């Protein structure tokens, strides 16, 4: 019989197998047992093409983006150098055309 591992997030022993995933009923974490799990809490952010982004990368906008509360539009093809990854709703902190902005990774590609 296969031994079901404890939850990697909360270490609960009450995990169960659901299809191809393991599920923790206490913290609602789901994970694939066939994927490698990182033991540290590194932030992994992928661009619109699935490329892994890291701090210091250069990115390019893939579509025009209107800034909230402003009439300013960031144009498709605008480049940001030396990005910083942050945890939260908007994963990228950078400067585009001299303005400090936070962007979602789905609107950029790695330069």
Automatic annotation (TrEMBL):
<protein>
    <submittedName>
        <fullName>Alkylphosphonate utilization protein</fullName>
    </submittedName>
</protein>
<feature type="domain" description="Protein YjdM N-terminal">
    <location>
        <begin position="4"/>
        <end position="32"/>
    </location>
</feature>
<dbReference type="Pfam" id="PF03831">
    <property type="entry name" value="YjdM"/>
</dbReference>
<dbReference type="InterPro" id="IPR013988">
    <property type="entry name" value="YjdM_C"/>
</dbReference>
<dbReference type="InterPro" id="IPR004624">
    <property type="entry name" value="YjdM"/>
</dbReference>
<dbReference type="InterPro" id="IPR013987">
    <property type="entry name" value="YjdM_N"/>
</dbReference>
<comment type="similarity">
    <text>Belongs to the YjdM family.</text>
</comment>
<dbReference type="Pfam" id="PF08274">
    <property type="entry name" value="Zn_Ribbon_YjdM"/>
</dbReference>
<feature type="domain" description="Protein YjdM C-terminal">
    <location>
        <begin position="45"/>
        <end position="111"/>
    </location>
</feature>
